[in-house]
């Protein structure tokens, strides 16, 4: 009986040492070229067509990135899905970031749907140019901020289904911010009210994109919540 008690005490001590030791924490992943996978239950991806990129993926969807001499590069972490947008429930992302673009760049919620193939953006902040350079379809107030809605088309460009022609849906804030809560589902509803319909959601991510620019960013919070 004494031996059993002693073993329990020793096991408890060992577990305390292991759990309290930072060397046993999950190590961050550093990427410099195109890659995607899952880490700590978050999907991550670095995609670029050229240039210098570094992305460090940490726990809880947090990441940092740096880019220079690029044409186009995207750094993102989030969640993968295979459900129509109106069956997901209410998706919210609470985030905070240190964002230092030098030139054309976006800090955004970013994702794709299939059937139809749509690339979508909820732009929270940007660099030297406010996207997307199109005619606004109107405004919507979500989470206390005003966003303009746009639709654009990309012809024979890279997509999650290879080189395709596809549409893009945009919500772009009228004033920049680098932290807060985004009720993603309310943007989907606003787009649908304009006839901009999504299909099966493939991914929803917090993303930093750079285009013919340089810069850096540090995502210090990226918390997803989904309520039915």
From TrEMBL:
SUPFAM superfamilies: Concanavalin A-like lectins/glucanases. GO terms for molecular function: hydrolase activity. The keyword Hydrolase applies. It catalyses: Endohydrolysis of (1->4)-beta-D-xylosidic linkages in xylans. It holds the Pfam family Glyco_hydro_11. Residues 1-27 form the signal peptide. Keywords: Carbohydrate metabolism, Glycosidase, Hydrolase, Polysaccharide degradation, Signal, Xylan degradation. Its EC number is 3.2.1.8. The active site is at 119 (nucleophile), 209 (proton donor). It comes from the Bacteria. InterPro entries: ConA-like_dom_sf, GH11/12, GH11_AS_1, GH11_AS_2, GH11_dom, Glyco_hydro_11. Residues 30-222 form the GH11 domain. Pathway: Glycan degradation; xylan degradation. Belongs to the glycosyl hydrolase 11 (cellulase G) family. This is Endo-1,4-beta-xylanase. It comes from Anaerocellum danielii.
